[in-house]
Design brief:
12 strands, four-stranded mixed sheet, 224 residues, 4 helices, eight-stranded mixed sheet
């Protein structure tokens, strides 16, 4: 049987078992090339969507491209597109106690055994501070602690986020664009308050810009 025909036959056999993979020849992958992907909707997620993939390797950019291609061709809740900005992690805590204020995790480049997948949720916040703008693709409140994911896939607890954005000002004024129903510019000494306000507004999902203004800059808002 010609190699290309054998390859098509192998692909057909694996797809019938509910798996999708890409190979350029050679033997079928061994059991060690399999990975279980857990698509998380929250942190932690007690009932994630589980997807099994048979891959051509365990790490590297080529394997990542293969994983993304596979996810793009699944159906229904197993399908993930690049527009959802997926990132992959290993060793994420499975209990509430694992997500503290100093929690931090970066995307993995190893794709084997248990791999956790995080994608965009319904709210995206552009945190426009004076010194260090941040874009937050995901925001969760886990065990009373704010956990965020930025566009690079970094998962951070509220203490880590605070260190990256806080200035010496004792309080901030903030405004939200587009504004939430009934919202006005407010003064606060808690940088988490407007973010939590956005997360709690289920009626206005989408992308919001959150401008945080130091007192000395409040009068200069012509660019907002």
């Amino acid at each position: 049987m010609p190699p290309c025909r054998r390859q098509r036959r192998r692909m057909s056999q694996i797809k019938k078992k509910g798996r999708s993979w890409i190979r350029r020849g050679g033997d079928a992958p061994s059991a060690t090339d399999r990975a279980d992907f857990y698509i998380l909707n929250t942190l932690p997620d007690t009932s994630p969507t589980t997807v099994k993939q048979v891959l051509s390797g365990k790490f590297g950019s080529s394997v990542l491209a293969e994983i993304l291609w596979n996810f793009g061709h699944f159906d229904d809740k197993e399908r993930i597109t690049l527009a959802q900005n997926p990132h992959f992690y290993q060793g994420l805590p499975t209990s509430w106690t694992g997500y503290g204020a100093d929690f931090e995790s970066q995307p993995t480049t190893h794709y084997h055994d248990k791999v956790y997948v995080v994608i965009n949720n319904s709210h995206r916040v552009l945190l426009q501070c004076i010194e260090r703008p941040r874009v937050l693709d995901n925001i969760w409140v886990t065990n009373g602690i704010l956990i965020v994911r930025d566009t690079c896939g970094n998962l951070q607890g509220e203490a880590i986020v605070a260190n990256s954005i806080l200035t010496l000002d004792l309080y901030w004024w903030y405004c939200i664009k587009p504004p939430l129903p009934g919202s006005e510019d407010e003064r606060t000494d808690d940088w988490k308050k407007p973010i939590l306000q956005l997360c709690g507004s289920s009626s206005t999902p989408g992308t919001h810009k959150l401008y945080v203004l130091a007192p000395k800059a409040r009068e200069d808002r012509s660019s907002l």
